[in-house]
Amino acid sequence: MDAKLERLNRCLAPEVQSLGCELWGCELIGDAKHPVLRVYIDKVGGVSIEDCGLISRQIGALIDVESIFSHAYQLEVSSPGERRRLFRRSHYEQVIGQRIQVSLSRGISNRRRYTGQLNAVQEDAIVLQVDGELITIAYPDIVRAHLAPIMSSG
After folding, report:
1. What does the pLDDT look like over 86-100, one tens digit per residue?
2. Which of 10, 111, 126, 132 has the most crowded CB, counting CB atoms within 10 A?
3. Could you tell me the pTM of the whole model?
4. Domains of the chain with bracketed CATH
């Protein structure tokens, strides 16, 4: 994880928790001159618009006080949603048995994207069942992973 994101996670987690939610994860998108910080929060029973607004105001002030960004940035706070991104090992552990999609930094058998059932979470890798085959994927090779629920057509 990038150093700025690590610092953001360490800084924001206690504040988000004090407001009754869990910091699910953070991601930075956009370019260096116009970064967008997406902060995902979660809580039992779901996240409300009011939760997002309150946490946005609180962590926006905290980010400014901590001088995490040296220039303007855009802050977005939301629920991780149904296709929630998996940021940490604990997230993978929570979704064992569910369908996920994983994008890799380097391919396995010339593939960089896999969708399948998460069968196991190991110390240094996940085990994914894809088309009846078990594939072990090391955490450092994962660029992005998220739930991939099967959408009903009716």
Report:
1. 999 999 999 999 999
2. 126
3. 0.85
4. 3-78 (3.30.300.20), 89-147 (2.30.30.100)
